[in-house]
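Table S2 (text version). Query chain:
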Amino acid sequence: MLKKSLFIGCLSLLIYSCSSPKNVAQEFLEAMNSSQFETAMSLVTEDSQGVLYSIINQQTSEIPPVKVEVKACADLDNSNEAVTCLYVISNDVGENFEKRIKLVKENNQWKVDLTDL
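Corresponding structure-token output:
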């Protein structure tokens, strides 16, 4: 019985950690960076899908891959419903650019919110 409870606890922790805002933001940014737009689309809010579709359609040339790393996320209003994550883009010449991305809970899942772009 103890082993079963421990297994369920570990599985719950794994599921929770995989769906953290930081992990969702990282997965979205990596999907965009590698042109996996279907994956990226699954990680944005319903209201953001049109915005993302426009971004994808405006992309006229191949963008060279960069390194993208989410550094930290902070709760926007202490509600645990919206966060902003700081991420860093590093290119192949050693330049680093700090950016922010907003995530909100939609149907109890963290999703990227692009509506404020």
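Notes on Table S2: The radius of gyration is 16 Å. Strands lie at 67-75, 82-90, 96-106, 109-113.
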